[in-house]
Amino acid sequence: MNICVFCSASDLDERYTAPAREFAGLIGRGGHTLVWGGSNTGLMKVMADGVEESGGRLAGVSVRFLAHKARPGVDEMVIAEDLAERKRELLSRAEAIVIMVGGAGTLDEATEILELKKHGLHAKPVVLLNAAGFYDGLKEQLQRMEAEGFLPRPLAELMHFAEDGAAAMAYLEQSAQPR
Q1: Phi/psi of residue 11, each to 5°?
Q2: What pLDDT is recorded for position 176?
Q3: Which of 66, 96, 144, 171 is most buried (most C-beta within 10 Å)?
């Protein structure tokens, strides 16, 4: 499975790197491909290192103005012209999407993926990996949007919430099964 992971390129503490390493190992040992922003810094590097060390493939999609931070020696690297093209490339290569901790860029990616799914423009499973409760506030906000009628589809159809990498992978593997 090609699993797109949206996450931070910032250096973060163990509360966030440990769950990333755990999930990266599951991707690699499962024979999956990490499709990610291509950066060799921060949590993106932690993910790529873990997937590579555990036998998985790496498919990066960087962006022209960040190409100098792209990870060398990956299985595949695409350099997009801008962030909008990068998001389109990441989504087109993904069979599933996992949103991990991150800043404004990760939040932008997450909301776009949800908006596209809300309108039926993709049907890929989306998991929000809520390491150390990082997304508790976002989860509450999305639940409020659902309760107050702002989402035309049930939240559970748009996104699955997982507290750890094992739960995220279990959901992805179950969702990838033919129905």
Answers
A1: -75, 125
A2: 74
A3: 96
Cα-based distances in Å from 90 to 62, 73, 155? 10, 19, 23
Interatomic CA distance for residues 155 and 140, integer angstroms: 11
pTM: 0.94
Q: Are 44 and 60 in contact (CB under 8 A)?
A: no
CB half-sphere exposure, 66, CA atoms < 13 A? 18
Distance from C-alpha of 94 to C-alpha of 142, rounded to nearest angstrom: 23
Pairing of strands 96-99, 33-36: unpaired
Q: Which residue has the tokens 């440990």?
A: 18
Strand partners, 129: 162
Q: Are 23 and 118 in contact (CB under 8 A)?
A: no
Whole-angstrom CA distances from 82 to 11, 79, 111 are 23, 9, 18
**The residue type at 111:** T
* Domains present along the chain, CATH in parentheses: 2-173 (3.40.50.450)
What is the arithmetic mean of pLDDT over 47-72? 97
Two tokens at 31? 């024979």
